[in-house]
Amino acid sequence: MSNAPNLQQNRYKADLREVRFLLFEQFKLDQILGQGPFEAWGPDEVQMVVDEAYKFSCEVLGPLNAVGDRTGCRLEGGQVYTPPGFKEAWNKLYEAGWMAVSAEPEYGGQGGPFTLHITIQEFMSGANSAFIMYPGLAFGAAEVIQLFGTDAQKEHYLRTMYGGKWGGTMCLTEPQAGSDVGSSRTTAKKLPDGKYAIRGTKIFISGGDHDCAENIVHLVLARVDNAPAGTKGLSLFIVPKVRTNADGSLGEANDVTVGAIEHKMGINGSATCVLNFGENDGCVGELVGTVENQGMSQMFRMMNGARISVGLQGVAVASAAYLNALEYARDRKQGPSINNWKDATAPRVAIVEHPDVRRMLLDMKSRVEGIRALIIKLTRHFDMTRVLQGKDDEQALYHQGQVDLLVPLVKAYGSDQGFRVCETAIQTYGGAGYIKDYPVEQYCRDAKVFSIYEGTNHIQAMDLVGRKLGQRGGANLQGFLGDVAAFVKANEKHPVLGKAVKELGEAQEAVAGTAMRLLGWFQMGKMPMVPLSANRFLEMMSETAVAWLLLDAAKIALDAQEKLPAGDESASERAFYEGKKHTALYYALNVLPHVRLSAEILGREDSSALEISTESFATV
Amino acid sequence: MSNAPNLQQNRYKADLREVRFLLFEQFKLDQILGQGPFEAWGPDEVQMVVDEAYKFSCEVLGPLNAVGDRTGCRLEGGQVYTPPGFKEAWNKLYEAGWMAVSAEPEYGGQGGPFTLHITIQEFMSGANSAFIMYPGLAFGAAEVIQLFGTDAQKEHYLRTMYGGKWGGTMCLTEPQAGSDVGSSRTTAKKLPDGKYAIRGTKIFISGGDHDCAENIVHLVLARVDNAPAGTKGLSLFIVPKVRTNADGSLGEANDVTVGAIEHKMGINGSATCVLNFGENDGCVGELVGTVENQGMSQMFRMMNGARISVGLQGVAVASAAYLNALEYARDRKQGPSINNWKDATAPRVAIVEHPDVRRMLLDMKSRVEGIRALIIKLTRHFDMTRVLQGKDDEQALYHQGQVDLLVPLVKAYGSDQGFRVCETAIQTYGGAGYIKDYPVEQYCRDAKVFSIYEGTNHIQAMDLVGRKLGQRGGANLQGFLGDVAAFVKANEKHPVLGKAVKELGEAQEAVAGTAMRLLGWFQMGKMPMVPLSANRFLEMMSETAVAWLLLDAAKIALDAQEKLPAGDESASERAFYEGKKHTALYYALNVLPHVRLSAEILGREDSSALEISTESFATV
């Protein structure tokens, strides 16, 4: 394009005022700092980590985002090489300790709140979604070993993995076993020394090989001899790329080979590998912990974290897309103001002045901020389980239940809407959005995978309706519905937000009613209606949760706004709080009503998609 | 991926039974064949063209789709080179006469219905959306010359352009003039010989240069001396890449240079150019026709066709994505049937058996078939204007009015939903959809531009609410609403479709009511509410139109089904007609209700997006 883009337009950025609002005004992180597991942390320490991690993301990771996309990864002589700069960024990331903020001090971590970890992970995911896959999976694999490994395993693996000396992956998918992970065929044969010979092929392994760390610790789902069929017979194994000695030094190679790397729509800086284990009968692994056939439940714990990270990727990339589109809309002049639309000589205005551009911007803003709030709501619940552990087990269970309930919402709604926001960002740019001089087309390509990996969004929806709704006798759902209802009751007469809160009340009832309907289908032998309707139900619940948290934020903002001193020095704070109000009203009045409609639609029990014969889809 | 894709899975395909249904059962093309302008055409000729053009699309264009994407275009020594095979495909396309099916016999065309032209253009757009840009724009440019050029211009340009000897483009956009085309700065200075010296820079010019034809005829919007500001002062010029002699031979170069080609998210086989006219003061053009300052209205005629083509690109690519996803879903085995979901040893089934996959497939099918029907509805109206011309001018006006009214719906809804279908197709594939071994990720990248070029979809929405609704004193809208109402009245008690038809009736009322509301805003000084709401209104009207045509198809299919002989030989026909029923019910009961909700939402007049200050969007 002849008006060459300012490189600043490609820059990753986040709104730190928004982060501060979430952490300290809406979710009151200070209430758990300085005590229990977070004794060493105060608001200043949190703010410093946020500021420094943001700086790191902008300066180190952001500039590698387009490079990683254009260069991609390369498989040469059996080794994967990451794009230029990735290895250096990996080293800087671990030197600064950004992956260990919430890890246990015992293993080199800093023992901070998970909320803080996720907050800074958003910066890194937004700055470079492909890069963050490598350390993100290493972190997740280490967490599994920390939760389920033997003491010796923890001692051997955790410091090196949290410290970035060794990477990590999770290896579930096989050619015939994607969503149907129970069909895995990879085998594990017990050896005389207690270890296992691993044999099989895994595909779509993110970061399955790379050159950032000296070793990679694969966590591999495999089936031991005579194990039950399906998911119940899967065990989880630690399978390093290079065998390691007791002192942590490297031994010989472990017969883990890279069959291929995929060429993808996006996240090209992340190597997606076909991995062959034991092609030459030389692959050895050790069981995570001491009991076989626990692989699925162990993997689920890892997946919880991974699924939050994917929802976070959705909002992170979407946020970057939104803020770049906003900058473009403020700079780009086109057309006269709507108030002068008939005057061909009227001055041209920045497109941010045009109603439809404002609509797109506010739509993006509301989805980004609402989903981000939902993620912080979740992590705040998680941090509470740690604070309450051993002190108030019942309350801790409530918080753990909310974590479990919200994970599928965060993963599926975060990824679906993340993609939608990127699409809207492209539209905001117009033609410029479609060309590679601007960052949004890459954001859109990168974001498409989020609805697929770590369990497709339908798997999330089935997790929600098939497992989470009934958990603890339905108490998790009741807890959620009760929290929303309490907010509605307290605020339905609010002078500014009242009509929006009323809409939230109707949405809450629609969710409750539809949950009962789903339960009825389970019991009335209408089982196929459940998966047919699960995605829509997940969306209903997500929209309700997001509207709730946006309205909650708006109420806090309006209260804070009242306390601001008059005058110009408060102008930017006032504008910030005003934005919160408009964001909540927009979402509640334009998006949230879908919940009511969805309940009505599901109530009709249209089963056309079940009734249509496979032959009727097309004659070819 | 280790299970390497069958190349057949990459193949373009269309459902010819569906095409036959549309042409002959739903839109009864035979009623206008063999008479008036279509005297030379019968159903057999139409069917033969369909079959052969489909074969050509599959065999010649389809295999170049991925090639064009991966190779892209190349600018070397001022000349653009298209991907390998494009030039040969261009030659074959014109040898076979596929671009001249509906062109005037006087200029080498075959004089067939526009409906037939569009039907076969769908195959070509679906098989290779990037390639078809080159001949598509040449066709559009030729049409403008045919409509507005002098006899000498027609004589000089039309045969060469319809015949593919020369290409063509439309040059509107400039760096500061995108949606705001009235801000164009390109100038035209009258020369003593009556021609004009052209000077200026145009950007985002599709097919702005290429190596397929020996010359390219650019249609350039420019402003003559002392012309009025804005769109009223724009004139349209014929500016060939190479000057031509009276006998059609080529003269010297015309000082049209390629400044750059864009690197894009998709349609990489289509060269998107920056064109500099008259950089060395050597660019000469001639006015289209004889009157200055008619450029916008002339360009609008060209844009009508171009906008239909873009909506068609949306449905074409979406249809290819749907049919590929369907094939994958029939082949790919994963997980047990929902009826055996608790049995880990149950046989694995093709994913087409899973309820959520069926939901995605039926959702895609309904959007693809509904929008395709809308396009054929439009072209059928257009063909009627030609049949009725000079015979029944009032009826001809009605049909022309429907064409005008439906163009923005086809362009915007076709492109938006085309992208949505591609997204759903990727999700149907799962991980495989994200990798380049399968065609859907390219479809999705290609499709993103359709909502942007030829007027962004907001420009379409403003065209609808700002121009089309009030055209002929509102008669076009009344005609449309009347047609829908008549269908509702005739079918609201249909035993199978009744409840869906009732929903259509409510949608029709919601559209009518919202149109009045928009009119009210114009009159009540609430002008900014109009652009704020225009996209949603366009979607409401499109959903209503699509549901109407799907239900109409279902009714025809159910009637036809009753007449089928019993027995196996009718099985595939029965399945086809059954599919029409389920498609219509699905769309009417799951998508169409949004129209009611949208009317309700617009009725609230939420203006958050207008009220929020620009500073409130973010603090960065």
Distance between the termini of chain A: 42 Å
Shape of chain A: globular
The Cα radius of gyration of chain A reads: 25 Å
Helicity level of chain A: 40-55%
- Main sheet of chain A, how many strands, which sense, barrel? 5 strands, mixed, barrel
Show the largest interface.
A-B, 120 and 121 residues
Structural class of chain A: alpha+beta
Strand line-up of the largest beta sheet of chain A: 4-5-12-7-6
Q: Mean pLDDT across all residues of chain A, rounded?
A: 96
Number of helices of chain A: 18
Strand element count of chain A: 14
Assembly context of the chains: homodimer
- Roughly what fraction of the amino acids of chain A lie in strands? 5-15%
Structure explained in plain terms:
- Chains A, B: Keywords: FAD, Flavoprotein, Oxidoreductase.
- Chains A, B: It catalyses: 3-(methylsulfanyl)propanoyl-CoA + oxidized [electron-transfer flavoprotein] + H(+) = 3-(methylsulfanyl)acryloyl-CoA + reduced [electron-transfer flavoprotein].
- Chains A, B: Its cofactor is FAD.
- Chains A, B: Involved in the assimilation of dimethylsulphoniopropionate (DMSP), an important compound in the fixation of carbon in marine phytoplankton, by mediating the conversion of 3-(methylthio)propanoyl-CoA (MMPA-CoA) to 3-(methylthio)acryloyl-CoA (MTA-CoA).
- Chain A has 620 residues and is an alpha+beta fold.
- Chain A has a domain at 473-610.
- Chain A contains 18 helices and 14 strands.
- Chain A has a five-stranded mixed barrel with strand order 4-5-12-7-6.
- The interface between A and B is large, with 120 and 121 residues.
